[in-house]
Amino acid sequence: MNNLQRICEVCILNNIYTPEEIESLLKAGKEPEVHTKSYWRKKGKIPIDNDSGIKTKLWTKKSNTNEYFLVNTTLYSENMVKKI
Predict the structure, then answer these.
(1) Where are the chain's structural domains?
(2) What is the pLDDT of residue 50?
């Protein structure tokens, strides 16, 4: 399972998107607006409440290798963040 699949699953399990909405987004070439804190910071936003995120695990690449491993991550939907 890749990160996009994991994020889609998290969205459905946490009632952020319905399965039909996820399917529609993916068919349109888009992705769910659910990202990590670092992603939102780059967009000039921060989580409203740091504890309100969704805990999951995503794949990350080990430096200078082709090895991947799962790391603990917290995801935030667009309604969980505010402008800085």
Answers:
(1) 3-83
(2) 66
